[in-house]
Design brief:
The complex is a heterodimer of chains A (about 260) and B (about 300). With about 260 residues, chain A is α/β, with parallel strands linked by helices. Chain A is built from three helices and 16 strands. A six-stranded antiparallel β-sheet of chain B has the order 7-2-8-1-14-13. Chain B is globular. Classes of the chains: A alpha/beta (about 260), B alpha+beta (about 300).
């Protein structure tokens, strides 16, 4: 039986005359208590995400395995619950973005913007990730076991990004808080225009970005690195150097807008 | 946005159904650009040449068009014969013409002669290169030009979202590196010093078919190679000379190369094994020809790679 095509396709229009895509829930996953298995092969992106929501929010499932994600975009986005999701394969762009709580494992690779704006949770990618991994990350851990692309953790506001491989250019661009641990080499423009936060690098740095300087190592750095590597069972951490903001570009006062009015 | 794709069969893999494969890849990226679709396909090398000619734009709807196109066909055929070529076959759709012929004279003179027929443009010319481009998605273009059965050794393709110039055949990719036989380019991005280079290359005697910024890459590479540089060296030099954001794929008779700008601002996913190399703006396109879990990576900024068949 083909679960998706079994339904008669219906085209609905919204009041602007635009086609509303079919968001009915397939409800075809195999559920076994708190576990479920979802075969995504014949489903559209919208249906896969609707099915995931149905399983987690309405069926009380806490552990979902998604088969055949086939590198499609925007899978596993906006899941706001504690649960485990395992993607058996690769994701396309914007995978697992806007999530709060889940622990997600992707056995393949991911495209651009994985775990964008994650609030909390864990995303583990077993192979490579594209550019913009962990963009605007606010919390949680993003672990990439292969290489990451350009602008990793751009605008990062919290959380931790770990890459066991290399990173491309402009890593940590405009980063505001949080940590990045890049075990391999990084491309030019490391930490360009970063405001705050810390970037640890194991390999060669092609070139530092504007206002990024080497920081002084202390015990809290060692503790953090060892804890993160132990938590994610990543083995022994490599020797790392630490990079922070030079604060030469800082050009603002610390007054709130209401206070500024009083001063002026 | 635009979607680009390339595929090359390696290690004497010989000719495969490259038309069908490229159509599947481009159709999967239809959402990246629905305006027009273009192919540069390479059949196995032959003794003769093949020329693709545009007779009119797809959006022309002139009542006298059929008559005009008929006259164009006759004139083109006469000029090719007059140049001393031996025509083997003439095919085409209602607005294009494909001529297979044997020739041992100057190809640029021949192409110039054909282009002097009014409203006519040479889309491609070479021993193995064939450029097919038209409005619509990949399935539409493939059906219209019968690409489903096309066998060849390598190909590139482009699904266009027009940002810099008009939606018509002239501004659709790929671009042939006129008058360099068998070189074609597809591009995703925008070039900011395009007017600069266009002036410089025009002064050096090159000519442009369109207003599209991407055409500059094809002509630029042709210019570099005409001065004796290899494809790979020319592509490396282009990273220095071209400003803007770009990922482009360039093909010659026996090689396929890719270059990414220094910002890495445009995506590209790469798969390679001993038998084939497939690359595209999105992995879902590659999955159309390799329906299994595959190991892929994103080339880094400033990277240039070239593969031969």
């Amino acid at each position: 039986m083909d679960p998706v095509n079994a339904e008669e396709p219906t085209v609905r229009m919204d009041e602007r005359g635009l086609v509303e895509l079919d968001d009915s829930i397939p409800k075809t996953s195999k559920i076994d208590g708190e576990r479920a298995e979802l075969d995504a092969r014949e489903m559209t992106t919208r249906k896969i995400n609707a099915e995931l929501r149905w399983l987690i929010y309405e069926q009380g499932v806490r552990d979902v395995t998604v088969l055949n994600p086939s590198a499609r975009h925007s899978l596993g986005t906006a899941i706001l619950a504690r649960c485990r999701i395992r993607f058996e394969g690769s994701l396309g762009y914007f995978g697992c973005g806007l999530i709060d709580g889940p622990e997600i494992v992707i056995t393949g690779r991911v495209g651009w913007s994985v775990a964008e704006n994650m609030m909390s949770g864990v995303v583990v990618v077993e192979h490579n990730a594209g550019s913009l991994a962990g963009a605007a990350l606010r919390g949680g851990d993003l672990v990439v076991k292969g290489d990451v692309g350009a602008r990793t953790g751009i605008d990062q506001k919290g959380g931790t990004i770990i890459a066991l491989g290399n990173a491309a250019s402009m890593t940590g661009f405009m980063m505001q808080r949080g940590r990045q641990i890049i075990c391999g080499d990084v491309g030019p423009g490391l930490g360009d225009s970063m405001y705050d936060g810390t970037i640890y690098v194991g390999g060669e740095v092609a070139a530092l970005g504007i206002d990024c300087i080497e920081g002084e190592w202390d015990d809290s750095d060692t503790e953090l690195i060892e804890r993160k590597f132990a938590n994610h069972e990543l083995g022994k951490p490599p020797d790392l150097r630490k990079f922070v903001c030079g604060k030469k570009l800082y050009n603002y006062d610390s007054l709130e807008p209401s206070e500024r009015k009083l001063v002026l | 946005m635009c979607g680009i794709a390339g595929i090359i069969y390696r290690n004497g893999g010989g000719e495969r159904q490259v038309g069908r494969d490229m159509t599947a890849m481009l159709q999967a990226m239809k959402h990246r650009g629905p305006d027009s679709t273009g192919y540069a396909l390479y059949r196995g090398s032959t003794d003769g040449y093949v020329m693709h000619v545009k007779l009119s734009e797809a959006k022309d709807e002139d009542a006298e068009l059929a008559q005009r196109v008929g006259r164009q066909r006759d004139q083109i055929e006469a000029r090719i014969r007059a140049a001393g070529a031996e025509i083997e076959e003439i095919k085409g759709t209602h607005r294009t013409m494909t001529i297979t012929f044997g020739f041992d004279g100057d190809l640029k003179l021949l192409a110039d002669a054909v282009e002097r027929v009014r409203h006519t443009e040479v889309l491609s010319l070479g021993r193995s290169l064939e450029i097919v481009k038209d409005l619509g998605d990949a399935d539409t273009v493939s059906d219209e030009y019968g690409l489903g059965e096309y066998t060849g050794t390598h190909a590139i393709g482009h699904a266009r979202m027009a940002t810099e110039s008009d939606v018509d055949i002239a501004n659709a990719h790929p671009y042939w590196a006129y008058p360099f036989p068998d070189v074609a380019v597809v591009h995703n991005g925008q070039l900011t010093n395009f007017h600069d280079w266009r002036r410089r290359l025009t002064r050096s005697g090159h000519r442009f078919q369109s207003d599209c910024d991407s055409e500059i890459i094809a002509v630029y590479l042709a210019h570099q190679m005409s001065e004796g540089r290899s494809l790979e060296d020319s592509m490396r030099q282009s990273l220095e000379d071209l400003d803007g954001v770009f990922t482009y794929i360039c093909v010659t008779e026996d090689a396929l190369g890719v270059a990414k700008d220094e910002l890495g601002a445009k995506p590209l996913v790469l798969y390679e094994d001993d038998e084939l190399v497939a690359l595209a703006s999105e992995e879902i396109a590659i999955r159309q020809v390799l329906d299994r879990e595959i190991e892929t990576n994103d080339p880094y900024e400033g990277e240039v790679r070239v593969w031969t068949r």
